[in-house]
Design goal:
It is built from three helices and four strands; from the N terminus they run αααββββ. 12% of the residues are buried.
């Protein structure tokens, strides 16, 4: 048997073994999700629905994007919303406390609900 034929015969089993190993081991993304869920369960991170409920009570608009980022060791939720007049506003929350720490965009006051809590 030539080396080329031997290599081609070994490739498929080696590939299958590699795929099996990869499927059995958690990926870094899976580990990150597990860590995040653990942090929420332990109260170290505010659950996202609480942040979204707070926003819905106070601001009119549609959520376009949500990101959870780490900035200098601090976990932050960034929520981008589309307002009723077409404005795009980004709200930034401390993920540990749920406190609104920043807003960025045009005509933010045009999104405020009249009956929303302050």
């Amino acid at each position: 048997m030539t080396n080329r034929r031997l290599l081609s015969r070994l490739r498929l089993p080696a590939l299958a073994a590699l795929l099996t190993l990869l499927a059995a081991s958690p990926t870094p993304a899976d580990e990150a999700w597990r860590d995040l869920h653990q942090a929420v369960r332990e109260g170290r991170v505010v659950p996202l629905p609480e942040i979204l409920d707070w926003l819905e009570e106070r601001y009119a608009g549609q959520v376009l994007e949500v990101e959870l980022e780490r900035d200098d060791g601090r976990m932050l939720y960034e929520v981008e919303m589309l307002g009723p007049q077409g404005q795009v506003v980004e709200f930034e929350f401390d993920a540990a406390s749920g406190e609104l720490i920043g807003m960025e965009g045009v005509n933010i006051n045009g999104m405020r609900r009249e009956d929303g809590a302050e």
